[in-house]
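Our collaborator T.R. sent over the components below with a one-line note: 'Predict the complex.' Nothing else. No constraints on interfaces, no templates requested, no preferences about which chain binds where. So this is a plain run: every listed entity goes in together, and whatever single assembly comes back becomes the starting point for the next discussion.
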Amino acid sequence: MAGIVGYGAYIPRNRIKVEEIAKVWGADAPSYKKGLMLEEKSVPSPDQDTITMSVEASKNALRRAGIDPREIGAIYVGSESHPYAVKPSGTVLAEALNATPEVHTADLEFACKAGTEGMFIALSLVQAAAVKYGLAVGADTSQGAPGDALEYSAAAGAAAFIFGQDKLIAEILHTYSYTTDTPDFWRREYQYYPQHGGRFTGDPAYFTHILGAARGIMAKAGMKPADFQYVIFHQPNGKFPLRAGEILGFSRKQIDPGWLVPKLGNTYSGSSPLGLTATLDIAKAGDMILLVSYGSGAGSDGFIFRVTERIDEVRNLAPRTRDMLDKNKAYLDYGVYAKYRRKIRKAK
Amino acid sequence: MPNPARAWREYPQRYRLEAEKCTKCGTIAFPPRLVCPQCGNRKFAKTKLAETGKLLTFTIIRVPPDPFEDQAPYAVGIAELEDGVKLTAQVVDCDFAALKVGLRVRLEFRKLSEEGEAGVIYYGYKFVPE
Ligand SMILES: [Zn+2]
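Returned assembly:
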């Protein structure tokens, strides 16, 4: 049986409130807060990017896994904000973790699904016994165009998972993928900001794939919503995952522990993976967890986890996700946020 | 400004805090040296710096050298790590008012500088409050 050996999260300390963004663009903050169920989002410092957050999240995963980094045979970084267009994020990560040179590395992209894509591949290599341990990271420092609806949600964070066959904290019982060609959100080469299909991002995109993958994996496993203690859906805003849960028959009690988005924003490739880290932080041996990611373009990956007794030994070996979310925050005004995110054009 | 090749040679120190420990007197050399500054011994064993410590002193840089222009003002500090090594690095994620001698810090992986918008990005460690 293969599964998760260690997990780790990283969330930058900077935040900006919905009101602060709405004020600048003359938008109605209460309707954004109510409509999208968003209050604030994380913002990376100028010296943070997908690579730095991946390193910190992975080091937290290593602390919990308690393995020698040289035994990691595969490292995948899923992101839509890799710092380089050409030159892998994964090589910096592998070098920083001391996992080089006997390691297979690739950067993955699939909008918000790149993190679970890496998890899927790393897990498969472990199951095939091609590597002893595999590391997958979902990380993003995503940008929405100034004034666009996405600017209220595009946030920063990273989650890392080490997969293996021994020392498991969660077994992986089933995986499932649901993919179609659906142009709901995209960014062409050399474009700074993405574009999206507005309302088209809802029913034919997010909901079709999330519900399709959730129903598909439950049918494959012969399980129903009541069989799970916790469920995590991709969280582009507060409302979508709650509605997906409601349609499928999950309760708020199952959703809430991994529902980070009102205070975190959408961390894209880190979104549902960070929800999983927050859920593992409180899970008990025997708990069943369903995770369903979503990436525009479009696809969903599903995973069914069964938590083992080792969770109690490892959860306090690294910072908990909710602590990173709730403690030591620094609020930015829009001016500093715009400077940090390089939205201000400077003289050369 | 370091060029990519020079920065690359420093990755073991900058990325992984690799240091060398004198096999005779235990002095930790960071960056590694050929001869122990304490006892003159030429044999070292590989070690890794501790990732936590406390601030011994600090200053605020308001007129920075070129590569750090966009970051000013920023704090630079010297901290004594758990293994006794004194390390100089930027102190980030900390309001200047909260900086004080004795502040508990840990090392976090950050972007150090970049060669403009098209050049190489240099990574390494900075202090953050623990
Ligand atoms: Zn010596």
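Summary for T.R.: The first strand of chain A starts at residue 3 and ends at 10.
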